[in-house]
Amino acid sequence: MTAVTALNATHFALEVDAGLLTVTIDRRTRANALSRAVLEELDQLVATVGRDPDINSLVIVGDGDRAFSAGADISGLQSLDSRQGLNLSIHGQGVFDAFEKLPVPTIAAINGVAFGGGLELALACDIRIASTTARFAFPEITLANVPGWGGTQRLPRIIGAGRAKHMMLTGEPIDSQQALSWGLISETVTPADLHDRARVLARSLGQHSLRAVSGIKSAIQAGLEGGHSAGQLAEAAAVAACSGTPEQVEAVTRFLTKQRPATTPA
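Structure (tokenized):
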């Protein structure tokens, strides 16, 4: 049993197999909506994954084929006042920021709808793949509100400001082919193949040096947040952290051995 599987999760089903953690949002009857209780549990899960040496990759999915996550649990939003709304937004931003900064590669396998907060959770993942039946939307405008868990910042960086504004100002969903052409997701597969494809990809990524994976993620993030110079400093620091390590020396040696031309007898 790993530290993650020892968690007493009630809103997520957790499975670890050879370093791959599969996280299933387990609220099918509510279209896997994200309530405050779900956020609290996700926060605890992220903190545990971040310090669990037995985890080398993560896939997050929604239970069933209807929804990855339909977003924030609307029933919990009706009574929010301004201060409560601020606190909920800041809390969700913090949870998704921590998820984004996990040292392991993360993949969102999007089955069905990814709306609002559900799409914001997917945007915090490193890679997004989707079934051909998936749909994506930020419908907050139709509820007289604004995406509040990082969506206004992450989406424009991925698909551009114009397309992000189109999605957020209209609230209209786009299908998986549109999402693919805009770069919101990196590939589509049939619904039946989605989970297997996500796990195969995660296992492949999990075989790489986690030091290098973490370095790539942190350098990209530093550049997005602090600009080109900050990104390059983080990049150089990541190269330094990897250089000379036993795993790096072994990988280079293995590569050179494979590339060395065979000698022929005189």
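The first helix runs from residue 36 to 50. The radius of gyration is 20 Å.
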